[in-house]
Amino acid sequence: MAENNKQENLDPRVISQQQFQRAISHLKNMKAGLIDFLNSPKRTVSVCFPIEMSDGSVSSFHGYRVLHNSAMGPGKGGIRFHPELTQQEVTALASLMTWKCALLNVPFGGAKGGVICDSKALSENELRRITRRFITELSQNIGPHTDIPAPDMYTNEQTMAWIYDTYDVLYPGHNNRSVVTGKPIDLGGSLGRREATGRGCMNATEQFLSHGLIDGLKNLKGARVVVQGLGNVGGVAARLFAKQGARIIAVSDSQGGIHHEEGIDMDAALAFKKQHGTIVGLPETLTLTNEDLLQLDCDILIPAAMSNQICAHNAHKINARLVVEAANAPTTPMADDILYARGIPVLPDILSNAGGVVVSYFEWVQNNQNESWELDIIEHKLKRKMVYAVDTVVKRWKQLEQECQQACGKELRSDLRTTAHMIAIERVARVTLERGIWP
Ligand code: NAD
């Protein structure tokens, strides 16, 4: 890693605090105590529990559930199983969820949780026991109207089914389906949920381009697109961007990337990945590293894998005209500065990957009403939410750019991320005050 990286603190909590502070610096007249409240987790639950493993041994596991803020409604956020999970990371991701829900106007607060474990090394039975025991330990800290989990890294529809079933056994006699979203369809899951984040990302990008802020690129037709991370989000996004006329010139997964300037056939690529477990080796493509992939000359770069992929050491080598964050926190604050100075806008995660939580909200509404909506209705409602959020951010961004230039030359500035955070923070602050400081 280059020298720049030594100065860069990649602690997720530090990064989320920096993003919060940047937004707050533009928001005048907010009381210090209110700022502190908005910046702090409301509740952190930390649990440790034993599990009998398949070989008869006993292992202990640690898990967390952080409810960052519930002013707008019950907490909402995923549960991940990961060996490197930390309380700081869960706390940072919970606050990101607060701002994401507020920005998209869904009536939820932010939350996140997880268990420290290597799911790839665990059997299905062990994963089921971990899930059930974790949910039992969390007990009333989750609930259909208090805090509603969802899938995240290395948890899936099956995990959500176990969560629902465990909660329903603990609290029988109620309609408990809305305690968790991302469930299998026949257990109350929503049509369109699996595709929602990638679809919302496509909707957000199209709407952003329609504002004409990128020279000569008013829609996706002919746009040269690079996608890092061909998983659930990246795979769907790549397919939908291609359907709208974009040319997907490079994609990657954890094993590496492939490049084909004339455009990759995404149906063939996804079928190849399903068969071989990786995209690397797709006929008629050049193989390249993930590092090189990020630096390819393109119109739109979509990081859709992990956090901190665009950082101080490679931001000056990014050759895209627009970065669209499908992953959570793929760009560090130092990289934000570098990209801003180079005139490369970043459509931020709390906007461009919010499609998942929007359709999770639709799932929750359907469960509470014992209804099942049709796919075209869900896609239409999702698009409206994404379009409205993008328009709101772009409008405010233009105002702020003007204010900054008038007030202090070009020194103070606002990027799209700061603008999106400002809108979200203002909404949560307003609702907190409308509810009235208690008692
Ligand atoms: P996933 O596990 O389905 O896919 C991740 C993909 O990234 C895989 O193809 C994996 O091979 C690849 N990958 C891993 N390490 C990589 C690396 N170093 N370089 C390149 N590729 C790498 O996960 P997902 O659900 O698609 O989530 C991806 C990102 O999107 C995460 O940051 C997640 O938090 C975020 N996100 C997901 C959702 C959702 O609804 N799934 C919603 C919002 C945000």
Explain the layout of strands and helices.
Elements: H1 4-7, H2 12-24, H3 32-38, E1 43-52, E2 58-69, E3 75-81, H4 87-103, E4 109-115, H5 124-138, E5 147-151, H6 157-170, H7 196-210, E6 224-228, H8 232-243, E7 247-253, E8 256-259, H9 266-276, E9 286-288, H10 290-294, E10 300-303, E11 322-324, H11 333-341, E12 346-347, H12 349-352, H13 355-369, H14 375-408, H15 416-435
Parallel strand pairs: 3-4, 3-5, 6-7, 6-10, 10-11, 11-12
Antiparallel strand pairs: 1-2, 2-4, 7-8, 8-9
Helix pairs in contact: 2-4, 2-15, 4-15, 5-6, 7-8, 7-13, 7-14, 13-14, 14-15
Nicotinamide-adenine-dinucleotide binds next to α8 and β7.
How would you describe this protein?
This protein is an alpha/beta fold and 439 residues long. Among the domains are: 41-176, Leucine Dehydrogenase, chain A, domain 1 (Rossmann fold); 196-354, NAD(P)-binding Rossmann-like Domain (Rossmann fold, 3-Layer(aba) Sandwich), CATH 3.40.50. Helix content is 44%, strand content 16%. It contains 15 helices and 12 strands. The strands form 2 sheets. The chain has a 7-stranded mixed β-sheet with strand order 9-8-7-6-10-11-12. Strands 1-2-4-3-5 form a 5-stranded mixed β-sheet. β1 (43-52) and β2 form a beta hairpin. α7 (196-210) packs across α14 (375-408). The radius of gyration is 21 Å and the shape is globular. Residues 197, 228-234, 252-254, 290, 304-306, 326-328, 353, 356 line the site of nicotinamide-adenine-dinucleotide. Residues 197, 228-234, 252-254, 290, 304-306, 326-328, 353, 356 line the site of nicotinamide-adenine-dinucleotide (NAD).
